[in-house]
Design goal:
The complex is a heterodimer of chains A (270) and B (172). Chain A has 270 residues and is mainly α. Helices cover 78% and strands 0% of the residues of chain A. In chain A, helix 3 packs antiparallel against helix 4 and helix 5 packs antiparallel against helix 7. Chain A is globular, with a radius of gyration of 22 Å. A five-stranded mixed β-barrel of chain B has the order 1-3-4-6-5. In chain B, a hairpin with a 5-residue loop joins strand 5 and strand 6. In chain B, helix 3 packs parallel to helix 4. The longest helix of chain B is centred in the N-terminal third of the chain and has 30 residues. The chains are: A mainly alpha (270), B alpha+beta (172). Chains A and B meet through helix 5 and helix 8 of A and helix 1, strand 6 and helix 3 of B.
């Protein structure tokens, strides 16, 4: 029992440390190049490898290469929403201010990858299955996820008092998280036109290693890219938030210009 | 537009979006949770001829007959799930992935004679991704015939590359 409170204390301290947006800005500035450059390099490597050097599939031919974009987007669509749900818990239970700002920034990025996932899936489905779209459980549940993202984006910006928007959107994000297991297991629970997962935690992948490696590299690259975009947006969001609160502060008439200039100089130095 | 009205409309839009999402889910999940019926389900309880159903299963090897009536190709093939088989009639162009041993989903209805008249045939590919050379090598060595079912356990070939396949075929 001795070790666990210390661990909890430490975790709590770390957790509250970044509730301070200024500290987050410092961390974000350090983190940014470590996210952006791996994202660019891994994505270029993965896509180049997958699109030009990996073998074609024995029955799908070159159409299989859509996979190297479709699978990372599908993975990020679900993971991004899971991140929203985590932010929602942080916001509802602990009123963590950074979680609210993060939820604002994750939404549009997640919606974009989900749209890309649906679009590439449709482009893949037409030549292979013979149809752009079917209402099977996997495709429908991902479409629902896309609508959930759109609802979250609209809701979090719908109120004049941002706090109310944060709370409403957090509830939506939590409620919508029900869709994630449905997406994951739809191909196992029901007959679907979409094939089951090729990569599972329990079994060997049913995919040639010559295709698996470029897929993993490309997925890693997309994931870093997602994180880099979210962190960049979040840093901009924190600065925007500061400027807005400075402009609306009661001291506005007297010293706003001086404070703004000072704060701007600080941001630039960071 | 007053701020209040704008807010009201935004909230209504959100609710409508969510409602649409939930409605789509429900409509999809009530009738389409199972995207297709299997031949044994159809054999157990024959659906009425006026109802459109989706029939899914594997194309039986040697059962495909293609004819041409003028410009339209007329196809007939059997679909099985291992327990029962249903003969499917389809007028039109089959998808590229259609072959014997492939999983397909046919959209259509039962005919009084016990066959199935399809208006659309979709090909369903499995979760196996394999380079062409590896597939050819597996077939050549007699480990797998795509006409008779899914490929062997992936662990036996998923480290195989095109190069390995070539060297092993040269060796044999």
């Amino acid at each position: 029992m001795n070790a666990s409170p210390t661990f909890m204390d430490r975790a709590g301290a770390l957790f509250h440390r970044y509730a301070n947006p200024g500290r987050f800005l410092k961390l974000g500035a350090t983190l940014q190049p470590w996210l952006t450059w791996p994202a660019i390099l891994l994505t270029l490597c993965g896509l180049g490898w997958g699109l030009f050097f990996s073998p074609a599939d024995w029955q799908q031919g070159d159409s299989v290469r859509i996979m190297y974009v479709h699978v990372p987007c599908a993975w990020l669509a679900s993971s991004g929403y899971a991140a929203l749900a985590v932010c929602a818990v942080l916001s509802l239970v602990w009123r963590h201010p950074l979680a609210d700002l993060a939820a604002v920034e994750i939404g549009p990025v997640g919606a974009c990858v989900t749209a890309t996932c649906l679009a590439t899936g449709s482009l893949w489905g037409k030549p292979m299955w013979g149809t752009w779209w079917v209402w099977d459980a996997r495709l429908t549940s991902v479409l629902v996820l896309f609508f959930l993202y759109l609802g979250h984006i609209a809701l979090i910006r719908a109120f004049d008092d941002p706090q109310r928007g944060y709370r409403a959107a957090a509830i939506l994000a939590l409620a919508g998280a029900v869709d994630l297991p449905i997406i994951k297991f739809s191909v196992q629970w029901w007959n679907t036109l979409h094939q089951p997962d090729s990569i599972t935690l329990t079994g060997a992948p049913t995919m040639s290693h010559a295709m698996l490696w470029p897929l993993l590299v490309s997925t890693l690259g997309f994931t870093f890219g997602f994180a880099a975009i979210v962190v960049a947006r979040l840093r901009a969001g924190v600065m925007e938030h500061r400027i807005r609160s400075l402009l609306t502060s009661p001291r506005r008439g007297t010293s706003v210009n001086a404070t703004l200039a000072e704060s701007g100089a600080q941001e630039l130095a960071v | 537009m007053k701020r209040k009205t704008r807010r009201l409309w935004l909230v209504i839009a959100c609710v409508a979006g969510l409602g649409a999402a939930a409605g789509l889910t429900l409509s999809a999940f009530s009738s389409n949770i199972v995207f297709f019926m299997t031949p044994s389900q159809v054999a157990a309880k024959v659906p009425p001829a006026d109802r459109t159903i989706r029939l899914g299963g594997m194309v039986v090897a040697g059962s495909v007959h293609r004819e041409r009536h003028g410009e339209t190709p007329v196809n007939s093939f059997e679909v099985t799930d291992g327990q029962a088989a249903v003969t499917v009639q389809f007028e039109g162009i089959l998808p590229d992935l259609f072959r014997e041993g492939q999983s397909v989903v046919a959209v259509g209805s039962m005919t009084p004679s016990g066959g199935f008249a399809a208006s659309e045939v979709l090909a369903k590919h499995d979760e196996t991704y394999m380079p062409k050379e590896v597939a050819e090598e597996l077939q050549k060595s007699g480990k797998w015939d795509p006409k008779f079912g899914p490929p062997p356990n992936a662990a036996s070939w998923n480290a195989m590359t095109a190069k390995d396949a070539k060297t092993s075929s040269r060796g044999s």
